[in-house]
Amino acid sequence: MNLAEKVVEITIASYLELIDVVTLSADHLSKLSDFDDEEQYRVNLAVRESVANAIEHGNKHDRKKTVEVCFTLTARFLKVVIRDHGAGFDPQALPDPLDPENLLNPAGRGILYMRSFMDEVDLIRHPDGGMQITMVKARNLTPTATPVVEGTQDATGN
Amino acid sequence: MQLEISERQIGSIIILDLRGKITIGDGSNKLRDTVNRLLEIGDREIILNFAETSYLDSSGIGELISRHTTTKNQGGHLKLLNLPKKIRDLLTVTKLLGVFETFDDEQAAIMSFGIIGVVPPQLH
Fold first, then answer.
1. For a pLDDT cut of 90, what percent of chain A falls above it?
2. Local confidence band at A149 (pLDDT 50, 70, 90 cut-offs)
3. Of the partner residues A19, A56, A98, the one whose CB lies closest to the CB of residue B94
4. Cα A51 from Cα A39, distance rounded (Å)
5. What are the start-end ranges of the H helices in chain B?
6. Which residues of chain B lie closer than 8 angstroms to A39, CB-CB?
């Protein structure tokens, strides 16, 4: 680990009421990132959506399965990695929520919000099972410094 | 802050003042149950007032769509009032802003139902 990095790792059981434990950390790290109110809200929402998806669609509310979250704050960006232990899915196979046929579908907008509100979003099937989402938001101090997301990292950033 | 909902009635119109978060779990469920209860007793002209709503996630957005569809299918209308910018942005990103009738003025929202005999309280 780079000594200049601030890393926060959180593991929660699959309870929706624990999502706030993760978003509180997201809020704190957003403040440390000097994100403005709008950016803090967007990071919060993207993290909430990803953790909610992990609990609901990934782990299917199985309380024995965990959701692992790793925040990494560097001088250039805030990165969040979220992993569940479900069956995984093919992101390309998801219906497009902007398709007029799907517009009134009550579900299926979480990933769209993540992609809209973060600079980079990468979804992969984890080699050991489950889905892993990596999201990056560049800090305003160095807006061109967004890194290429490496999809093979696990939730601990290794 | 968990979602709190208070009701006001003006003529045949019900205004639900929403306070707090509408997120996956309790918030979305509370909104669903409240609107469904109104529909069950025949109240089909409903305004959701978001003036004190601080947060909505995709589950909350989904609940709005579901209640909009259910109300419409029963011959009613569900209209949105005082959308904060953040929530308006969420609807814009997902191309849903045009699906709902939205208002920034409560009297305009009330009068949009065009129901004879409804007099906004300010005119009494």
1. 80
2. low
3. A98
4. 18
5. 26-40, 58-73, 85-93, 106-111
6. none
In this prediction, residues B106-123 reach a mean pLDDT of 75
The Cα B60–Cα B46 span in angstroms is 17
State yes or no: pLDDT of A63 exceeds 70.
yes
pLDDT by residue (tens digit) across A39-48?
999 999 999 9
Q: For residues B50 and B17, give the distance between their C-alpha atoms in angstroms, rounded to a whole number.
A: 7
Give Cβ neighbours of residue A97 (< 8 Å, ≥ 6 apart): A103, A105, A108, A109, A112, B94
Amino acid sitting at position A16:
L
Read off the pLDDT of residues A78-115 as tens digits, 9 standing for 90 and up: 999 999 999 988 888 899 999 999 999 999 999 999 99
Question: What's at A98, amino acid-wise?
Answer: L
Contacts of B66 in chain A (CB under 8 A): 106
Q: How far is A1 from chain B (nearest CA, A)?
A: 33
Are residues A45 and B57, on separate chains, in Cβ contact within 8 Å?
yes
Contact A105 B61 (CB under 8 A): no
Question: ipTM, 2 decimals?
Answer: 0.84
Segment 60-119 of chain B within 8 Å of chain A by CB? 61-63, 65-66, 69, 86, 90, 93-96, 99
Q: Per DSSP, which regions of A22-73 are E strands?
A: 66-73
Measured distance CA(A112)–CA(A84) in Å, rounded: 19
Give the orientation angle of helix A37-53 with respect to helix B58-73, to 10 degrees: 80
pLDDT tens per residue, range A21-40 = 999 999 999 999 999 999 99
Residue whose structure tokens are 């029963």: B74
